[in-house]
Design goal:
With 343 residues, the protein is mainly alpha-helical. The chain has a domain at 1-111. The protein has helices spanning 4-7, 10-38, 40-43, 48-77, 84-90, 92-111, 117-136, 138-144, 153-166, 200-205, 208-223, 226-249, 257-294, 298-310, 325-334, and strands at residues 148-149, 171-176, 186-189, 194-199. Helix 4 packs antiparallel against helix 6. The longest helix is centred in the last third of the chain and has 38 residues, at 257-294.
Length: 343
């Protein structure tokens, strides 16, 4: 059955496709520039100050450019009320993440006359420390995203009932002030002390049943430890890959140095691809766990259709981390549940 036309009419789907193509071009340009910013770390190795200045300037330019391109796309297709400054703040995390490799590699260069096992261990420790701080403490995300506890008691009661049925303890619910961006989204953070974040735009534009389905999906991620598994996959590849990369940089005068550096980059890339595959699989698994916990799938299907409308997501859009909405709906409708889907 072709689900895509049922998600949107032809005109809406064409608009959504044009919107995501525009965002896709902006993302491609951003990552190309970020790759350019990292190149001097090797090419200008003999003048680390010059490499640092050049890299940071390119990163800053990339961050401003992608924020403004994102703003222009949202203004045209979603008619958002947010300002350019709001988008610069929204994308501030990009600036920090993109600059981390620069400071780690060149920082080690400043600390040591050359790379050795001690400087590699120092760099790896810094990577793990930053990642663990963000991962282990959802409070950092609450502060960074200016989240506030959800005060709606009816919503909290439904959320806690669903969490109880799933056996998920120690979970909090927070709202994100994203209405001016027209972002309908929710996500789960934390490996043990769980937090679920949901945008106020989603809360204000979905029915109670649809909201409950979305939150059940996020609670399923917590129940199945999906975030922890993806984190372990990513960090494992980053630690191994960056170790090889740093070791290779320390041996550039030897023939094997460049091979180790290439191998390190390859490990990081492959790790990101495996993590993306796991993320897509986990999305389908979370749908299934949520639907079976709720005992019906219609509210989840309705929520996915509404999400398609609110975020201008084409039903057949493929994402690195999420399956197409059409595929998710087909799988839910194929589940043996006592539901009249078209009532």
């Amino acid at each position: 059955m072709n689900i895509v036309p049922f998600l949107m009419n032809v005109e809406e789907n064409a608009k959504a496709s044009a919107y995501f193509k525009r965002l896709g071009r902006a993302e491609t340009l951003y990552w190309f520039l970020i790759g350019t910013s990292w190149a001097p770390l090797v090419a200008l190795w003999t003048i680390p100050v010059g490499a640092l200045v050049f890299s940071l300037c390119v990163i800053l330019f990339s961050y401003v450019l992608v924020s403004l391109l994102h703003y222009d796309a949202d203004r045209k297709y979603k008619e958002v009320a947010a300002s350019r400054t709001d988008y610069l703040k929204l994308n501030a995390s990009r600036l920090a993440v993109s600059a981390v490799p620069v400071f780690l590699i060149l920082g080690s260069r400043f600390i040591r006359a050359g790379f050795n096992l001690a400087s590699i261990a120092l760099a790896e420790g810094a990577i793990l420390l930053v990642a663990l701080l963000v991962f282990e403490f959802p409070s950092i995300q609450r502060l960074g995203k200016k989240a506030s506890p959800v005060a709606d008691q009816a919503l909290l009661s439904a959320f806690r009932r669903t969490a109880g049925r799933m056996g998920v303890d120690n979970v909090d619910l927070y709202s994100l002030a994203w209405s001016r961006f027209k972002i309908a989204n929710a996500f789960q953070a934390g490996p043990r002390k769980f937090s679920v974040f949901v945008s106020d735009y989603l809360l204000n534009n979905m029915t109670a049943g649809e909201i409950n389905a979305v939150l059940a999906h996020e609670l399923a991620h917590a129940k199945m430890k999906h975030v922890a598994k993806i984190f372990a996959m990513i960090m494992g590849s980053v630690v191994i890959g960056s170790s090889l990369l740093l070791l290779g940089l320390s041996m550039l005068t030897a023939g094997i140095g460049d091979l180790l550096s290439i191998a390190g980059l390859l490990v990081i890339f492959l790790g990101s691809q495996v993590a993306a595959y796991l993320s897509r699989r986990f999305e389908l698994e979370a749908d299934e766990v949520a639907v079976r916990t709720l005992g019906e799938g219609k509210s989840m299907v309705d929520a996915l259709r509404r999400l398609s409308e609110l975020d201008l997501i084409p039903g057949d859009r493929k994402s690195p981390t999420h399956p197409p909405l059409s595929k998710r709906i087909e799988r839910i409708e194929a589940m043996a549940l006592p539901v009249d889907w078209h009532s």
